[in-house]
Amino acid sequence: MNQLPDFLKHGEPARLFPVLADTNREQRIASILLAALPQIPALATELFRTAGIRIGKRSKIETFTEVVLKETKPSSCRPDGLIVVSTPKSTWTALVEAKIGKAELNQEQVERYLNLAKANGIDAVITLSNQFVARADHPPVPVSKTLLRKTELFHWSWTWIATQCEILDYQQAVEDEEQLFLLEELTRFLNHSGTGVERFTQMGKDWKDLVMAVANQEKLKKTGEDVESAVGCWHAEERDLSLQLSRHVGHPVKAKIERKLVDDPNQRLKQGISELVDTHRLQSSFLVPDSAADLDVCADLARKTITVSMKLKAPQDRKSTKARVNWLIRMLKKDDPRLLIRAYWPGRAPFTQKDIAAVREDPTALQTDNEKSTPHSFEVLLVEGLGKRFNGRRTFIEDLERLVPEFYDLVGQHLHAWQPKPPKPVARKPKESLEALPKESSGEQEEMDTGT
What we know:
By secondary structure, this protein is an alpha+beta fold. The protein has helices at 25-36, 41-49, 107-119, 158-170, 177-191, 207-215, 225-249, 259-262, 265-279, 321-329, 356-361, 393-412, 430-436, 442-450, and strands spanning 8-13, 60-69, 81-86, 91-98, 124-129, 152-157, 254-255, 281-287, 295-300, 305-313, 339-344, 352-355, 377-385.
């Protein structure tokens, strides 16, 4: 065993097969993850990247459980683990606190660990739970900013870790057979229902009442708990959807968030509340790598519909509406009755819309009254009315998570953005090319003729 860090009074190397009581689920899953990290460098690279730590060939990862620190004040709490990442030039350390199942982190607990890390000169605290966050440096609970001046705080959700494992496996990023075996076993373990890893599965308790209030045309209040709960749950589901899409396409998919709101989740929540009150809609956009456009998702509380769509620019090298529509239709393989094609026109002309079967049968069906006008962009939409299922806390989430990957399979994977062709060389006749050259003076011509 390697020498313990100076601040560590006692610690055991993290075990892949920990001998713990059945009641110690949190310590067990934390130990298994921590034991796997030094053995699967590709996974460690992905996880520590979110903390700004680069794992190179000369990096050494040590992980411990049963941690007892030398400085226990101002708290007597015991962390679930400790991570030490060292290189020939530096050392980075982090305390680990894990929750599993429905157990959640709270502000007082997280701040206690931050104070404990500070007292022992430890660089960071990493929390693990089923709570979702937009980014690893966004804690799932509010904490005092003064505590983050000298100690960093990162959060990894268990589902996010499981997704990173699946993506590495799909991309064949791990070539070593023993490391691949461990990665696949860890993935299987994290995805088992008995482990305690949970996804976001239902809206808040006020969801049905909120939907009914919109149906009854009641005025929503920005200060209402039902409105705030709906937006908070939508943001949690948005993060879960991005992970599900990542697993679906085998590449990281991220929610698209305005730059000014990325580092301010509270302001983002306020903006979401204003949008819900004003429009009765919950909306998100996702960035799928190399896709033709953003994937947009909208839940309309008034119509009780879910819409998934992508909007892309029409080909500018096709002059007629028919030619531009045909360009789009050829990319779509199936005429699902839920699919709609929407065309956007120059000026103030409103968009036109038809179902995909009608457009395929008659590409001019989208044409406006102005026959000379051509659409500048198209939007392909999958719209499904959920009826009573929209009111259900679980059924709403179930249908949402069914429709988004369905749209990608039907539409997203087939669309390609239009790009202009590169310019062709200008063809000139030989005579024209010679006449276009500047004439030399008689002296210069004599020098060329005589070779001087």
